[in-house]
Amino acid sequence: MYPWLKTHWQQLLTLVRQDQLGHGLLLKGVEGIGKGELAAALAKALLCQHANVAENEQGAPCEHCHSCQLIKAGNHPDLHVITGSQRSIGVDAIRQLIQVLNESARLGHGKVAVIEQAEKMTEAAANALLKTLEEPAGEATLLLISAHPERLLPTIRSRCQQWLLPVPEPDLVLPWLAGQGLEPSLAALNVNQGSPLNTRDYLTAGTDQRRRDLLQQFVELARQPRTLTEVQSGLLEQPVHLLWLQLLLQDALQLALGLSPAGLRLSDSETLSRTLSQLGPDRLHQAQNRLLQLRQTLQSGTGRPVNAGLQLGQWLNDWLINIR
């Protein structure tokens, strides 16, 4: 179990042991925090044949019984998972799940359904699930996972026991990342919005160096405007690259306002932030606001198609004019 989830794990096991876990549980929190891993462990505890015997005071899965071995092999007949890997979760998938849950447990120890990325359920799918969430057949437990619970129907949320997994403190995450053989930093954690698993993948892929190089190129645009096209292409590679730039401008604005550098989001790019801070708070504030509007426009996914290159090119041209 990830160190930042251990307290939640013990609390959930206590609910299982005291028979206080609801029929429907909604695990919510940012992407890459380990919601799926926690749900999988909880499903194993619910189906374990020895989890609630008198000798097992913790209620944790024994890892040795037939049920635990079947889960490890990935073929437990009473564990049903909808992965959320598809674009949406349709009503047919939910109806099929309900039909399976209405059947008797094969091993006679309850049934568990896990719905990953539950916010992908269509309205019809969500409505079809309501009755089962409220009164599931037999000993069925439904575990819903979502990084965007606000997108779920209110009627779904109200029928679930909601469990928030907050962004963990860096003091828990940074040592864990170092234990994975990585060289973590608070800046790397910040650009991944505090997500431990996303930060692990980011560092493993070597993306941190790409961030520093791209932001260096951006700051040098005033002296090397001919690199504008290269910088534009780099910022368009991934949506998160614009977040990097947003955080850099935010740090520069903080320094321009005379605030302490202790709270810089990209502490390893303080030199770049100080260079930009010389532009003054007014110009930085204006540029930051326009960049935020641009990011929101590109992420909206609604309305007329947006030419990202054209929009960002205009922002960069305005930036060059602004800093001269």
Description of the molecule:
The structure is a single chain. This protein has a five-stranded parallel beta sheet with strand order 2-3-4-1-5, with helices on both faces. The model has no long low-confidence stretch (mean pLDDT 91). The protein starts with 5 loop residues before the first helix and ends with a helix. The protein folds into two domains: 3-166, 3-Layer(aba) Sandwich (Rossmann fold); 206-323, Zinc Finger, Delta Prime, domain 3 (Up-down Bundle). The protein has 324 residues and is an alpha/beta fold. It is built from 15 helices and five strands. Helix 4 (91-101) runs parallel beside helix 5 and helix 11 packs across helix 15. Helix 5 links the parallel strand 3 and strand 4 (140-146). The protein has helices at residues 6-17, 35-47, 66-73, 91-101, 123-134, 154-158, 170-179, 186-191, 196-204, 207-219, 228-236, 239-256, 270-277, 281-300, 308-323; strands at 24-28, 79-82, 111-115, 140-146, 161-164.
Fold topology:
Blueprint (H helix, E strand, L loop, with lengths): L5 H12 L6 E5 L6 H13 L18 H8 L5 E4 L8 H11 L9 E5 L7 H12 L5 E7 L7 H5 L2 E4 L5 H10 L6 H6 L4 H9 L2 H13 L8 H9 L2 H18 L13 H8 L3 H20 L7 H16 L1
Helix pairs in contact: 1-2, 4-5, 11-15, 12-13, 12-14, 14-15
- Structural class designation: alpha/beta
What best-fitting shape do the alpha-carbon axes yield?
Answer: elongated
First and last CA, distance: 53 Å
Number of domains: 2
- List the uncertain runs: none
Strand order of the largest sheet: 2-3-4-1-5
CATH architecture title of the largest domain: 3-Layer(aba) Sandwich
Mean pLDDT across every amino acid position: 91
* Biggest β-sheet strands, sense, barrel: 5 strands, parallel
CATH top level of the largest domain is: Alpha Beta
Strand content: 5-15%
Say what the CATH topology of the largest domain is: Rossmann fold
Q: What is the chain-wise order of helices and strands? A: HEHHEHEHEHEHHHHHHHHH
Number of helices: 15
Radius of gyration: 24 Å
GO molecular function: 3'-5' exonuclease activity; DNA binding; DNA-directed DNA polymerase activity
Enzyme class: transferase
Domain DNA polymerase III delta subunit C-terminal: 208-319
Keywords: DNA replication, DNA-directed DNA polymerase, Nucleotidyltransferase, Transferase
